[in-house]
Amino acid sequence: MCLDYQSMLTSKLENCAAKPRLICCECAEVVVYKTSSNNETVCQQCLSRRTERKETIQEIVQTEVNYGRDLKIILEEFYIPMKKANLLENKELASIFLNLEELVHVNEKFTKQLSGILQEASNKKDEDYQKVNIGQLFQEYFHMFQAFEKYCVNQTSAIEILEQLERDREVLRAFLQVSQAENSLLRRMNLKSFLMIPVQRIMKYPLLLNRLYKSTAARHEDCAFLHEAVVGIEKILEEINAKTKSSGSMKLKRKRSELRRHSSTDKFELVKTALNLLEWNQHEVHDILVGTLLYTQPQDHFWTAKKCRNLKFTPVHALLLTRGEPQQESTITKKLLFTQQSIVRQAALVLLRGKGGRYQAVRDPLYLDKCVITVDPVYEEVFEVQDWNKESYLFKGEDDTETHRWVQQLKNQSKNLGVWWRRRNAVPDIKTNNEGPADNCEDS
After folding, report:
1. How far apart are CA 59 and CA 44, in angstroms?
2. Which of 28, 59, 255, 412 has a CA 20 to 30 Å removed from the CA of 238?
3. CATH at residue 63
């Protein structure tokens, strides 16, 4: 019996030794569990990395398409109507919109190339996009960052000119207010917010390319190109920032600092965490504002009279996100959809804090269709957000300008999201989508 067992064991060992070991084609490690992809032997870890790489490529293409859509909104919904109506002189238009038409042209060419390489991969049945070389394409289009540089260096002065003209020209102010309130394509964003989009876009390129680089195998032909692209874009950003600072504007330096903070890897992680909390489809979501707010919870209703002297405000990461309903879509592949137009149907304020390198919720999201946003005229440094089912919170920005910016966007996004109900006993009015509050309500 013992001899038979030894013979059987020896036979199995000889058979195992005779079989060739399976080696992962990407990391060169022995494959314990064989996994095939495009007739290649890939270990489970590398297969997961391929999936992440594919998703990142899709995000790069999709966000570039969305960026181009917003550029055309600026051109077609603001620049052209303002020019035709003679709301501003040509010199004033040029000082506000800068080289917008050049940015549109560059984006159209770049988007066409990105879409083309994905279409080619689809035609060749390259489901994992292993033959797609995004880093190499970025290096070929490095000249497009010259257009970004022209825009970014002068963007702050453009905003200041726009603000001054809004104060001086009543007709211009009325046009911008009506457009923001009535034009569904604008998603209730004002012109100043749209003018920030090219700056936000160039800040996002290093984030996306760095993610793609980390998920690309070292043996992949695009790996070196991706590394060079990340280094090159970061160098361009440093040059843009240096030219911006040389203007000597303290206000400009502060805005650039904030922009870097909220347009880096942190911003992506913040939005990702917020989407997980909201359980919204990322293709329908727009981040209207991402920044820092100071918040507290008052213990009584007399905080206005006390002017918050005894209240301790805590800084948190704040995200104002809207969810749009797609109206028109086009496809590059069956698995990649690009939203062309959307109407805001949900909006939420999400509060997060960092802990251990990750972000977690400070509290449940504040859905604006169930909130009241108020500012006491006696004390405008703080605004209140009251969730009619729960509690009240006080917020303020890092300065008065930021506070006003948050208030305006919160109020704009909360419009037309529900039906207003008036509560008795001088309790603030509330808004709800389907049902009013359960107690003491009457339709207003």
Report:
1. 23
2. 59
3. 1.20.900.10
